[in-house]
C-alpha cells in the first residue's frame, strides 16, 4: 500500500484527465442530483410514446395500442386463451377522438425506427415475457415461474408513459398466473430467476443505495436546521463497491468537502470522477505548507493563459475560494483544513475520512502519530468516517465522547447498510462452498456463526445462493420444519422473494433447529454441497524458482519448499490453486487477485508451475538479459537527466535546458537504446486460457468461452523490458501476471496499475496492505496461507476486492486456509482496530 504521501506525479495528473464512460457519467449525475432528490430513479428504457416524442393523450395511447400492441395480444389470446381466464378490457367512458394527422405522419415516418428499437421499447419487452409466461403455463412447465417473476419485477420499474392498455393486459396475466403459482418453484429456480436473470439487470431502474440516501438525509437536515456550529459525527459503514467513495461528489452540492485518503489510488479515482462532472477540486498530497496545494484548472480563479494556445498556463494556487472538494493524504490534512478555512466557514464543511482503519491492524505504525495529530487539531465539526469494517459504536465509546466534548451538542449518526445484489461464494480449502450448514458440526459454533451473520448481514453475500436453495428445499421436505415455517407460509407473495429474503430465510431455518435435531441433521445436510470444481490436482512438493543468486536468469533454480502440485489431474475435491495450468479455466469473466504476504514467492511459483520447457525458458531468459543490459544503460542516463532537472528546479527554472548539446545527446542516446529493446513474446500455449492453453489443460472444455484470457499489449511489454527490474517480473508479465509489492520500480507499478484498471492482467498478486489501494474489478480472489495474522476486519476488506464489476459474472473467493474462514464467522471481540481507534482518535495526551 502506498502511504508515502508524496506529491502527484505527472503521470498521475494525466490519469485524472482521462474521460470516463457515458455509463459512469450517468451514475455520477444521479449521485449529484440525488442529494436534493434522494428517491431519484433512472431507466434508459423508454415507452413507445416517449420514443416517438408524442404527447401523452388518450387518443395517442389508443392509436399506438391498436396499431402495434393489440395484434400481439390478440395472437396471445388466440393461442393460449384457454389457460388465461376471461379477457377483460377497460372501455373508455366516452368516445376517443382520432389521433392528430401530424402525429400519424410522424409515426409512419418512424416505422422502421420503431421496429429497430423494439428491444428498448418497454411495451414490447413486457409482451415478450407475457407470451412466454402463457406458453409455459399451457405446457405445464415450471419455467413459467421465471417469466412470471421477471414480469412482476419489471412492472415496478419507473418507465414513464407505458401504454395503459398493455399494462392492464400484463396485470391480468400476472393475476391469473399468481393463482396457479407454486412458491416452491420460485425457490427451486431462484438462482436463475434472481442472480442470473439478465433481463432484470438490463431493464432495472438505477437508484441510490440506501446508505447514500441516509447520509444525504443527515446533512440535508443539518443544512435545514440552520444552526451555526451544528456538529455531526457519522459512522458510515457499507459494503465495498457500493459507491461510498463517490458520495462526496453529492455532498459537495451544498458543502465544501475535505476528502482524506491514506490510499492515494482511491483519491485519484475520486478526482477523475469529480473532474468528469466539472467539479472544482484541489490536491493536498505531500504538503508541508499551503503553498504546496495544487488547484485543478476548473478551480482556478487567478491564472495566466498561454497567448498561443489560449489554454491555462500558470495557476495561482493560493486562491482557492472556488474549491468544492480538496483531496488530501493523511499527512497533509491539517494543511488542507486551514487552506479551506481561509475561504469557508467550518460549519459549511465536511471532513470525509476514507478508510480510517488503514494501519489500525498494526500495534505501531509511522502514520499513527499523524492520525492522532489530525484528530486533535481538527476544527471541522462535520466528520464522516467511511469504511466497510468500522468498529461497532460500543467498542469506540471514548472516541465518540471525545468528539462530543470538543463539539458540544454534536449528533452521532450510525449509517449501516448491507446492500448487495450478487453472491460471491467463499470456497474452502476442500473445494466446497462455505455455508454454515456444511461447516459447523458443533452446535455452539453454528450458533455463534448465525449470530454473527444476523448482526452483520453483509456476510450473507458470501453464501452461495445455489447451495442455500438446496438446503431450503431439503428442509422443507423434512420433518424438521414446522408447517408455519414452510416456504408457502413464510412468503405471502412472489414479490417478497429476493436474494436477501431467501438468505434471511436460510438463517431463520438454521436458527430454529434444536441442538438435538442438529446432531441428526448435520450428517445429512453437510453432504448436500457438491465440489465447486472437479478433477482436482493433488498436493506435493514442487520446485520453486529461487532468487538466491540473482534475478531469474542470473542464478540457478533450486528446490525451496512444498507449495502445491503440478501433477496431472486426479479425481477429488478441487482447490483451484493451479491457476496457470489445470485450474485456469475456473477463473472466468475477469481478472483474479491473489493476496498473500510473500508476493515474490507466489509470483515465482506461478512461473515454475506454468510448465515452460527448460529450452524455451532459457531462450526467453537470454533475450530478457540482453534487454536488461540495455535497460541498465537507459536507467543510468535517465538518472542523469533527473539530476539535471533537480538542479534547474532549485535555480527556479521550470524546464530543463533541452537545447544544450549535453542534454540533446542524452535524449538521443536514450532513444537509440530504447529502439534496441526487443519485443519478447511467449508461445500462447503457456498464456492462461488461450485456445492452445485450454486444449492442453482443459480438454473437457469446461467454461471454455467464459475463461478469462489476459491482454498483453506490445507497448507494455516493451516498456517493462526496458525497466531495471528483476527478470522474473518480466516473465510474469508475459504470462499476464503482475505483482504489487514494496521496493519495486515505480514505473513498473504504474504500468501494472494501468493494466489492472483496463482489466488486461490475468492475475495480480499483492500483499494484504495493498487491499485499500486496489479499487479495481476482480472476479476471483485467493487468500494465501501466510495471512495467519490478518484480522477479521482486514479479511473482510480483502473479500471486498472481489465482485465490484458487472453483476452477471461468476465470482469466487478461495481460501487457502480454513482458519481464516472460522475467524471471519467467530464470536465478536474488541478488535485491534477498535483499540487503536480509541487511542488515536482521542484528544488526550
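^ C-alpha cells above, recovered residues below v
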Amino acid at each position: 500500500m502506498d502511504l508515502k504521501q508524496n506529491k502527484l506525479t505527472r503521470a498521475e495528473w494525466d490519469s485524472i484527465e482521462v474521460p470516463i464512460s457515458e455509463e459512469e457519467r450517468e451514475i455520477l449525475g444521479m449521485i449529484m442530483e440525488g442529494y436534493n432528490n434522494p428517491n431519484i430513479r433512472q431507466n434508459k428504457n423508454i415507452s413507445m410514446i416517449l420514443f416517438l416524442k408524442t404527447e401523452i393523450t388518450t387518443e395517442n395511447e389508443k392509436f399506438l395500442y391498436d396499431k402495434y400492441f393489440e395484434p400481439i395480444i390478440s395472437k396471445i389470446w388466440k393461442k393460449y386463451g384457454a389457460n388465461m381466464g376471461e379477457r377483460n378490457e377497460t372501455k373508455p367512458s366516452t368516445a376517443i377522438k382520432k389521433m392528430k394527422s401530424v402525429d400519424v405522419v410522424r409515426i409512419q415516418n418512424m416505422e422502421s425506427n420503431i421496429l429497430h428499437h423494439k428491444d428498448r421499447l418497454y411495451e414490447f419487452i413486457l409482451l415478450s415475457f407475457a407470451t412466454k409466461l402463457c406458453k409455459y403455463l399451457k405446457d405445464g412447465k415450471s419455467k413459467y415461474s421465471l417469466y412470471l417473476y421477471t414480469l412482476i419485477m419489471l412492472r415496478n420499474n419507473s418507465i414513464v408513459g407505458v401504454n395503459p392498455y398493455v399494462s392492464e393486459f400484463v396485470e391480468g396475466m400476472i393475476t391469473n398466473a399468481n393463482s396457479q403459482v407454486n412458491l416452491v418453484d420460485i425457490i427451486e429456480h431462484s438462482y436463475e430467476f434472481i442472480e442470473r436473470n439478465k433481463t432484470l439487470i438490463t431493464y432495472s431502474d438505477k437508484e441510490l443505495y440506501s446508505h447514500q440516501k441516509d447520509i444525504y438525509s443527515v446533512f440535508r437536515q443539518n443544512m435545514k436546521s440552520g444552526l451555526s456550529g451544528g456538529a455531526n459525527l457519522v459512522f458510515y459503514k457499507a459494503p465495498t463497491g457500493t459507491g461510498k467513495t463517490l458520495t462526496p461528489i453529492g455532498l459537495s452540492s451544498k458543502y465544501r468537502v475535505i476528502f482524506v485518503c491514506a490510499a492515494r489510488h482511491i483519491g485519484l479515482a475520486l478526482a477523475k470522477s469529480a473532474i468528469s462532472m466539472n467539479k472544482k477540486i484541489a490536491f493536498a498530497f505531500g504538503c508541508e505548507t499551503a503553498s504546496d496545494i495544487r488547484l485543478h484548472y476548473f478551480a482556478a480563479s487567478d491564472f495566466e493563459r498561454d497567448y498561443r494556445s489560449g489554454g491555462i498556463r500558470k495557476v495561482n494556487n493560493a486562491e482557492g475560494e472556488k474549491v468544492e472538494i480538496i483531496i488530501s493524504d493523511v499527512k497533509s490534512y491539517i494543511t488542507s483544513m486551514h487552506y479551506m478555512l481561509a475561504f469557508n466557514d467550518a460549519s459549511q464543511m465536511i471532513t470525509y475520512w476514507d478508510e480510517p482503519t488503514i494501519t489500525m491492524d498494526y500495534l505501531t505504525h509511522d502514520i499513527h502519530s499523524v492520525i492522532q495529530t489530525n484528530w486533535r487539531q481538527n476544527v471541522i465539526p462535520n466528520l464522516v468516517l467511511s469504511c466497510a469494517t468500522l468498529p461497532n459504536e460500543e467498542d469506540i465509546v471514548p472516541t465518540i465522547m471525545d468528539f462530543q466534548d470538543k463539539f458540544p451538542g454534536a449528533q452521532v449518526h450510525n449509517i449501516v447498510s448491507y446492500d448487495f445484489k450478487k453472491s460471491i461464494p467463499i470456497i474452502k480449502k476442500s473445494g466446497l462452498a462455505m455455508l454454515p450448514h456444511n461447516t459447523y458440526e458443533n452446535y455452539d459454533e453454528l450458533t455463534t456463526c448465525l449470530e454473527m451473520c444476523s448482526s452483520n448481514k453483509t456476510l450473507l453475500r458470501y453464501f452461495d445462493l445455489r447451495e442455500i436453495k438446496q438446503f431450503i428445499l431439503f428442509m422443507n421436505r423434512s420433518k424438521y420444519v414446522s408447517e408455519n415455517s414452510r416456504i408457502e407460509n413464510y412468503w405471502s407473495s412472489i414479490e417478497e422473494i429476493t436474494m436477501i429474503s431467501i438468505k434471511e430465510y436460510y438463517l431463520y431455518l438454521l436458527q430454529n433447529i434444536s441442538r438435538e435435531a442438529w446432531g441428526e441433521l448435520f450428517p445429512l445436510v453437510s453432504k448436500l454441497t457438491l465440489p465447486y470444481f472437479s478433477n482436482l490436482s493433488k498436493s506435493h512438493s514442487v520446485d520453486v524458482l529461487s532468487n538466491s543468486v540473482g534475478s531469474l536468469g542470473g542464478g540457478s533454480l533450486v528446490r525451496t519448499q512444498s507449495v502445491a502440485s503440478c501433477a496431472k489431474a486426479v479425481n477429488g475435491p478441487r482447490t483451484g490453486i493451479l491457476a496457470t495450468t489445470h485450474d485456469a479455466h475456473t477463473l472466468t469473466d475477469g481478472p483474479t487477485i491473489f493476496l498473500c504476504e510473500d508476493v515474490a514467492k507466489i509470483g515465482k511459483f506461478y512461473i515454475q508451475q506454468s510448465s515452460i520447457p527448460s529450452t524455451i525458458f532459457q531462450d526467453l531468459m537470454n533475450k530478457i538479459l540482453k534487454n536488461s543490459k540495455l535497460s541498465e544503460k537507459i536507467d543510468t542516463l535517465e538518472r542523469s537527466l533527473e539530476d539535471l532537472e533537480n538542479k534547474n528546479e532549485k535555480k527556479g527554472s521550470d524546464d530543463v535546458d533541452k537545447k544544450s548539446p549535453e542534454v540533446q545527446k542524452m535524449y538521443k542516446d536514450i532513444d537509440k537504446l530504447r529502439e534496441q529493446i526487443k519485443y519478447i513474446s511467449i508461445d500462447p500455449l503457456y498464456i492462461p486460457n488461450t485456445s492452445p492453453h485450454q486444449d492442453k489443460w482443459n480438454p473437457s472444455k469446461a467454461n471454455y468461452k467464459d475463461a478469462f484470457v489476459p491482454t498483453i499489449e506490445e507497448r507494455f511489454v516493451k516498456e517493462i523490458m526496458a525497466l531495471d527490474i528483476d527478470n522474473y517480473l518480466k516473465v510474469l508479465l508475459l504470462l499476464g501476471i503482475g505483482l504489487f509489492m514494496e521496493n519495486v520500480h515505480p514505473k513498473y507499478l504504474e504500468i501494472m496499475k494501468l493494466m489492472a484498471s483496463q482489466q488486461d492482467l490475468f492475475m495480480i498478486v499483492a500483499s494484504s496492505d495493498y487491499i485499500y489501494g486496489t479499487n479495481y474489478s476482480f472476479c476471483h480472489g485467493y487468500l494465501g496461507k501466510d495471512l495467519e495474522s490478518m484480522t477479521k476486519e482486514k479479511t473482510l476488506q480483502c473479500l471486498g476486492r472481489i465482485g465490484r464489476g458487472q453483476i452477471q459474472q461468476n465470482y469466487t473467493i478461495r481460501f487457502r486456509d480454513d482458519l481464516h474462514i472460522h475467524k471471519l464467522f467467530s464470536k465478536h471481540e474488541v478488535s485491534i482496530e477498535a483499540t487503536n481507534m480509541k487511542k488515536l482518535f482521542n484528544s488526550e495526551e
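The radius of gyration is 30 Å.
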